[in-house]
Specification:
Helix content: 40-55%
CATH topology of the largest domain: Rossmann fold
Order of helices and strands: HHHHHHHHHHEHEHEEHEHHEE
Strand content: 5-15%
Low-confidence stretches: 368-391
Largest sheet: 7 strands, mixed
Distance between the termini: 52 Å
CATH superfamily of the largest domain: Vaccinia Virus protein VP39
Mean pLDDT: 81
Number of domains: 2
CATH class of the largest domain: Alpha Beta
Radius of gyration: 26 Å
Shape: elongated
Number of helices: 15
CATH architecture of the largest domain: 3-Layer(aba) Sandwich
Strand order of the largest sheet: 3-2-1-4-5-7-6
Number of strands: 7
Length: about 400
């Protein structure tokens, strides 16, 4: 009986446990906990969690923001926000407003407070829930990545050295390097897939995180990035490594011969004709036995609009640069373009917790075989270890 009870509780705790669903569970729970329905929070939280297919434990846990030490302050904040939205002023702003409130009949005053509380609860609770949910999301995403497999000591050392190279950069750059390598599986995948001693060309290198990881492993890397600020940051971080990062437009840059050419989240910045032209020039520069790695978000039914939305938002706020709207294509169409260039193509799902719908294409130039550990009996996300520390 006890074993069954433990199994039941464990099943409830694990249900709908993706990072995204846990985030929304925290938001919903915090809103419920901010409402004035004390004594009913448990039932409301569980009912809404079942309705929206969210984790019941997480929703109710977040609803406990209304524990006694915090409840008065939480209620006051909800009432104040709700009153400002419904009446244009809060209850505690001035003495005159307090006198106005006290002049109401008790029932009218209670009704006014209750209405203001209900109106303010979704805003105050939602804001608190977003903060809690973001923390839970990152923790869950990290645990999910770490659960795949541990890093080898060598790989852990490589990541640690890469991060140390960015320690003098501004906090946003340091955080980007840390969280992107931690949460985006493309880094560990390519780090393991590129054969020893390969000459690598990284087209659209961003901050040079991937180029530096490969340089720390001993590869010779030539990387280009058209954002001069990012290229400069990458150049500073890559000092002392066999890594050259320069500022160029990949559409006109002459690609040198290479054993591995990387196009990670680059093609969608170009229109279809420019994508095909760049792939053609990359294929011409590829040595026999060499590989082109293309990572993009699939526009087909298995892709994710979330990833594309985040990319468009990054362009809008200036995190990334582009001359026009991004052009996402079906992965099958990109694979067909690579086959038309005489490459043997392998397709591997490469969706991280922040990158649903992403796929890595591996285009091999016929010649001496190049080992590829990307696929080992299942999708990459279930067969490769996570980087301990995760943008371009």
């Amino acid at each position: 009986m006890i074993a069954r009870l433990r199994a039941f509780v464990g099943r409830i705790a694990r249900e709908h446990g993706s990072p995204a669903r846990l985030f929304w569970a925290c938001v919903l729970g915090a809103i419920v906990g901010s409402t004035p329905f004390f004594g009913l929070h448990f039932f409301i939280a569980v009912g809404l969690a079942m309705l929206f297919r969210l984790n019941r434990v997480a929703v109710y846990a977040a609803a406990n923001i209304s524990i006694p030490p915090l409840a008065p302050f939480l209620g006051a904040a909800c009432v104040e926000v709700g009153a400002r939205l419904t009446t244009g002023h809060g209850y505690g702003a001035t003495l005159a407003q307090l006198r106005e409130a006290s002049s109401l009949r008790p029932w009218s005053l209670a009704s006014s407070f209750f209405t203001a509380w209900l109106v303010g609860a979704p805003i105050v609770g939602g804001a608190i829930g977003v903060v809690i949910g973001a923390a839970v999301y990152l923790l869950a995403a990290r645990r999910r990545a770490d659960a795949v497999a541990p890093l080898s000591p060598d790989e852990r050392a490589i990541v640690t050295r890469m991060l140390a190279r960015f320690r003098d950069e501004k906090p946003s750059v340091r955080s980007f390097a840390r969280w992107k390598t931690r949460l985006d599986p493309v880094y560990r995948s390519i780090l393991r897939a590129v054969p020893n001693g390969a000459r690598v060309v990284d087209l659209g290198a961003g901050l040079g995180v991937l180029a530096i990881l490969l340089g720390e492993r001993g590869h010779s890397v030539v990387a280009v990035e058209w954002d001069a600020g990012k290229a400069a940051a990458g150049t500073r971080a890559a000092r002392g490594l066999p890594v050259e990062i320069s500022t160029h437009d990949v559409r006109s840059w002459e690609i040198p011969s290479a054993d591995a050419i990387l196009l990670v989240d680059v093609l969608h910045y170009l229109n279809v004709d420019a994508q095909r032209e760049l792939l053609g020039r990359a294929a011409e520069a590829l040595n026999d036995g060499g590989v082109i790695y293309v990572r993009e978000s699939d526009r087909g039914p298995d892709g994710s609009s979330w990833t594309r939305t985040i990319e468009r938002l990054s362009l809008a706020i200036g995190v990334h640069r582009n001359e026009g709207k991004p052009t996402f294509r079906r992965i099958d169409d990109l694979a067909e373009d690579l086959r038309a260039l005489g490459l043997e193509v392998e397709r591997t799902p490469l969706a991280g917790p922040l990158h649903p719908g992403n796929v890595l294409l591996r285009g091999l130039r016929r010649g001496d075989p190049v080992p590829s550990p990307l696929v080992s009996g299942g999708p990459v996300e279930n067969s490769l270890p996570a980087l301990e520390v995760a943008s371009r």
